[in-house]
């Protein structure tokens, strides 16, 4: 019998469809420079949905033995930081003031977690928790955040 909590079902579905979220986000950003009608609206709705999905997926509950370790902390922090970075990018698209701060905080946290995962030599973190798609999400959000920050400081033009 399936006794998963509703939030665990949502988390499993989000993690299962990670490639779909990343692909749709790439398509939304590709539509933006083409000036296709409603491309901004599509991007806003998609980023809002993806951000909410990542934050909800971060609320996944863990078995007792994993919850005591740093596994659940990094997993939850990564999901929430991903959501914050995406909301910052969304606010940047909408030209809200101080959107840079959300992008910086979220992407810096994601980059730190990605670095910790990469240099995990003492095996304090259970690497099976961080699937390749989750690592790809962290890398993808870091790259998009860097592009948006470079555009904000007029180093590159999107």
Structural class: mainly alpha
Helix content percent band: over 70%
Task: Please give the domain count.
Answer: 1
Q: How is the main sheet built?
A: none
Average residue-wise pLDDT: 78
Q: How far apart are the termini?
A: 51 Å
Number of helices: 7
Runs in which pLDDT lies below 50 for 5 or more consecutive residues are none
Account of the protein in words:
This protein is globular. The chain has helices at about 5-15, 20-30, 40-55, 65, 70-95, 100-120, 130-150. Helix 5 packs antiparallel against helix 6 (about 100-120). With about 160 residues, the protein is mainly alpha-helical. The termini are far apart.
Which properties best describe this structure?
158 residues; mainly alpha; 7 helices; globular
